Q: What sequence folds into this?
């Protein structure tokens, strides 16, 4: 059984300007190539003549035509099927602000669940082209990634990604604060940003631009990241990076530093069993399916295994899906690998099938 408020991440659209090597959901990179528009991802490669001034609206139409994005009507049906459950929703992508129709989805969600229960994450391109300011009356939190000061970080291979996010955020930060929107920078810790000197610059840059909170994450070997281009970090690497952030927070009194569930297992004295998998969190895919976890995606952005797909929210109510025996059976097993991230445990033990989620195979978990 789920207890208390459920946190849902909803991958609203996978359209994006960027083509990051570590994209968890294998987003669809839309770009202009001369007179053509191209779409690139592991799952879908496509090219056609450019017909619109706005490549993202043409890109979005192509994705809908190929069944790779829901129509507005379908999204509103999903929203309607979420009613009756105590929820907070984090809308993410891709960069769903590139699809202007999504403003309507966020407005309706805000009306149903309350502004304070709605968060969005976006890149600087979405914040600019998608008019972030139009969303601010309907959301309680804005997240964006800012994880390196170098423009050619191998995590992204996309020159300008971090800077573009930061610049767009700077233009909106005052408005965010006046609308009481909490702002948060997401920092997946990796080999390219784990050193104390880089952390110091990242932290002070974010402090200077007025970010409220920093959220430290693992770099997940899921989605396109399953190819593992960079070496995984050791426990010691993670701990020393996290402690550096805490030290800076204490010294300079903010931004507030928080760490994700999959890192809390490094501090068992503070967090005994921090994984929220099917306890208090769940995920909706860009096709409207309910799946177990926001990181449980494979190379082509599909759920890691059929066994963690719980049903189509275009056709079923959430309250019915979360109370089905398939979920209850998995919920009975969540204590089996206390202190392990279930998704990373599965990635390291895929041959065990669904049992992999409950095996002691997260290298940061308890031995
Ligand atoms: S499976 Fe991993 S990412 Fe998901 S809730 Fe558990 S610790 Fe967090």
A:
């Amino acid at each position: 059984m789920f207890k208390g408020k459920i946190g849902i991440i909803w991958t609203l659209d996978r359209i994006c300007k960027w083509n990051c090597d570590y994209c968890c959901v294998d987003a669809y990179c839309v770009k202009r190539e001369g007179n053509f528009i191209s779409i690139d991802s592991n799952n879908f490669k496509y090219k056609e003549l450019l017909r619109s001034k706005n490549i993202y609206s043409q890109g979005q139409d192509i994705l809908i035509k190929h069944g790779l994005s829901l129509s507005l009507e379908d999204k509103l049906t999903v929203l309607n099927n979420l009613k009756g459950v105590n929820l907070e929703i984090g809308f993410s992508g891709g960069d769903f602000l590139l699809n202007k129709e999504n403003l309507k989805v966020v407005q309706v969600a805000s009306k149903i669940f309350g502004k304070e229960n709605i968060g969005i994450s976006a890149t600087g391109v979405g914040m600019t082209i998608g008019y972030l300011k139009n969303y601010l009356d309907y959301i309680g939190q804005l997240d964006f990634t800012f994880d390196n000061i170098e423009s050619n970080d191998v995590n992204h291979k996309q020159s300008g990604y971090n800077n573009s996010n930061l610049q767009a955020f700077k233009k909106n930060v005052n408005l965010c604060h006046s609308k009481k929107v909490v702002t948060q920078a997401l920092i997946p810790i990796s080999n390219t940003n784990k050193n104390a000197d880089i952390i110091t610059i990242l932290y002070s840059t974010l402090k200077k631009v007025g970010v409220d909170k920093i959220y430290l994450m693992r770099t997940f070997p899921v989605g396109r990241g399953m190819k593992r281009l960079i070496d995984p970090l050791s426990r010691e690497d993670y701990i020393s990076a996290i402690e550096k952030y805490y030290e800076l927070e204490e010294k300079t009194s903010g931004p507030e530093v928080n760490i994700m569930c999959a890192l809390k297992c490094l501090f068992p004295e503070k967090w005994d069993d921090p994984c929220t998998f099917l306890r208090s969190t769940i995920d909706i895919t860009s096709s409207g399916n309910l799946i177990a976890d926001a990181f449980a995606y494979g190379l082509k952005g599909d759920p890691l295994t059929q066994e963690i797909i719980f049903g189509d929210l275009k056709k079923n109510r959430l309250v019915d899906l979360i109370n089905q025996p398939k979920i209850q059976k998995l919920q009975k097993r969540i204590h089996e690998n206390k202190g392990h991230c279930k998704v990373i445990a599965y990635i390291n033990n895929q041959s065990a099938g669904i049992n992999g989620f409950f095996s002691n195979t997260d290298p940061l978990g308890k031995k």
